[in-house]
Amino acid sequence: MNKTQIIKLFIIGIRLSLGILFVYAGIQKFKAQDPKPNTQTEVKEAQNELPSNVIKIKAYIGGLKQTGYFWPMLGVAEILCGALLISQVFALLGAVMLIPLTLNIFLFEVFLGGGDPMELFTHGLYFAANIALLVYAWPRLKLAFLTSDKKFKTLIS
Length: 157
Fold this sequence. Notes:
Elements: H1 3-28, H2 40-49, H3 52-66, H4 70-87, H5 91-112, H6 117-136, H7 138-145, H8 149-156
C-alpha cells in the first residue's frame, strides 16, 4: 500500500466513525426522557447538591428542550450529517454541515464541561476529525468557495 491509499483509508475511517457517532447521538435525542421532579422544592434541593457547571449544563440543555423544536431539530441534523458521512458519496456535504455541530460540542466542553481532560480531548477530537475531512477535501472546497471575481460575475450575469 502506498501513502495515498493509506490516507484514503484513514479518511474513510474518519467518515464512518463520525457518521456512526452522529447518527447514534441524533437517535438518542428522540429517546424517552427521565421523569422530572414533582415540586420546586425537589428541584432546588437537587440543584444545591450539584456543582455549578452541572447546573449550567442542565439550564442550557433544558432551554434547548423547552423550545419544543430545537432539540429534535438538532437530532435530525446530527442524523442527516452522520448519514451523509456514512454514504461516502455526499461525505463532503456532511462534513461541511457538521462543522457548526462539532464546534459547538467542543466549545460546550471548554466552557461548560467539568474540566475532565479526557472529555475535552474526546470532543476536541470530533472537531479535529471534521477539520481533517475538510482539509483533505480542500481542492474541491476551493472550487466552491474561492472563485475569482470574473468567474462569479459571469455566473450571476
